[in-house]
UniProtKB/TrEMBL annotation:
Keywords: Cell membrane, Cytoplasm, GTP-binding, Membrane, Nucleotide-binding, Ribosome biogenesis, RNA-binding, rRNA-binding
Region (G1), start-end ranges: 20-27
Entries under NCBIfam families matching the protein: era, PRK00089.1, small_GTP
Cell compartment(s), UniProt: Cytoplasm; Cell membrane
Region feature G3, mapped onto this chain: 67-70
Region spans: G5: 158-160
Annotated GO MF terms: GTP binding; GTPase activity; ribosomal small subunit binding; small ribosomal subunit rRNA binding
Protein name: GTPase Era
InterPro entries: G_ERA_dom (IPR030388), GTP-bd (IPR006073), GTPase_Era-like (IPR005662), KH_dom-like_a/b (IPR015946), KH_dom_type_2 (IPR004044), KH_sf_prok-type (IPR009019), P-loop_NTPase (IPR027417), Small_GTP-bd (IPR005225)
Cellular component, GO annotation: cytosol; plasma membrane
Family note: Belongs to the TRAFAC class TrmE-Era-EngA-EngB-Septin-like GTPase superfamily. Era GTPase family.
Stretches assigned to the Era-type G domain: 12-179
Source organism of this protein record: Facklamia hominis CCUG 36813
CDD domains reported in the protein's UniProt record: Era, KH-II_Era
Amino acid sequence: MESIKSLYPDYHSGFVALVGRPNVGKSTLLNQIVGQKIAIMSDKAQTTRNRIQGVYTREQAQIVFIDTPGIHKPKHELGEFMVKTAYSALNGVDAICVLVNASEKMGPGDQFVIDKVREAKVPVFLVVNKIDLIHPDDLLPLIESYQALFNFEAVIPISAKEGINIQALLDTLVAKMPNGPQYYPADQVMDHPEYFVVSELIREKILLLTREEIPHSVAVQVHSMQRNPDDKVEVQASIIVERKSQKGIIIGHQGKMIKKIGSLARRDIENLLADKVYLDLWVKVQKDWRDRQANLNDLGYRLENY
């Protein structure tokens, strides 16, 4: 049998997991790499719930990046799913990027993540994000504190938001990828269907516009996407909450909040689909859905998907 190297002598490809504690910028980095929004962003912790794969392709190389939920101590069944999803991404990859926040000192959460990758049999890179928020003189002591814990393959300081040093990160990772096939067409940037991304874009606007318990108690389910007689893509979706009081907050006084959520989400969905969109949103109460496995399965939070 021919070896992979002989079958693909001039092509390098592989899978890279992006891991870290919540809110270190994994989704921002993924969007920057693929050049469009495929993972939602928010200043709320635990924004990412599912594993999202973004595809980076260039001449003679392709990397599939796996954006994972932030590793944290779970408080409910949904949290358990998120953490297990993050851990599952460490299996079968060709490299791991541990993302940390340059503007914060190393904390127990960062140390916990490093402990989880300690047994990895693949190169582990330290990616120090948000370097635009600190003075350059503060960077080296921070890096040294992490290097004292673990022998990283390399350390790459970046700013995902500003696009600083992203190309250096990609060049470093491509050099470490094994010989292999091109897994996805060159113009494909994600592995999730449009239904999933549309639901996430709606949820992102709820994260943006609400606070306290609402962002963590909300899920979004897209029921249909089809062209209507006005030649618009009609999207019908439900916003799921846990209590009637939360439903009232999402709808808002005289429906103002849900109109604002819909207006902002529609813009992003139109950019994603490159088409005019009519967005029809409903709000439903499913008590304690985060702790009910049947509800989690219905909403797509299934470990067997991965």
